[in-house]
What does this fold into?
Amino acid sequence: AQSVAQPEDQVNVAEGNPLTVKCTYSVSGNPYLFWYVQYPNRGLQFLLKYITGDNLVKGSYGFEAEFNKSQTSFHLKKPSALVSDSALYFCAVRDTRYRNRLAFGKGNQVVVIP
Amino acid sequence: DSGVTQTPKHLITATGQRVTLRCSPRSGDLSVYWYQQSLDQGLQFLIQYYNGEERAKGNILERFSAQQFPDLHSELNLSSLELGDSALYFCASSPRTSGGEETQYFGPGTRLLVL
It folds into this structure.
């Protein structure tokens, strides 16, 4: 079954420092990968996705993600973190059997320290 | 704002009861998805509808059912509620049902508390 793993429960980073949220995937075939962010008491907001093409994908709010096929990873990055980036981040992969359902990771809580 | 709306925002009910959650997709979107988010199970796909027809089923209990109406809004019906059904229920929509490259846009969710 298709799955993603987000190995860290929480990521703490100082404001202004680079932010990385890790995600590894396990799929058969070509992966379609997504990142979403969830702010407190809000729904999931789409950040970016990788379908094909350039390994570096640029998304909303200054975020980008790097697809690495050899390491089966899709890490989310931001060069300079803001306090407002504190939220729950989810990596997701398209299910190749039921193509339109997403399989989500457990989520990473990001805390940006002022 | 994703353009997906869900009502109600919060729902408190008792065990054994039945509730209906409502979702209106983004304008023009034909596909609707339901997900459940709980502390122990994380985000789980429940069911997908496309233009009124069921397209995919995930980890949806037999006590739960859904439908999509001609105006494309969808309802998720939860019956014989148990304490463990307490969760955040999300609806998402996308334009079509396709190869899976489409982005799903999520609503704000309905928080269900079963007492």
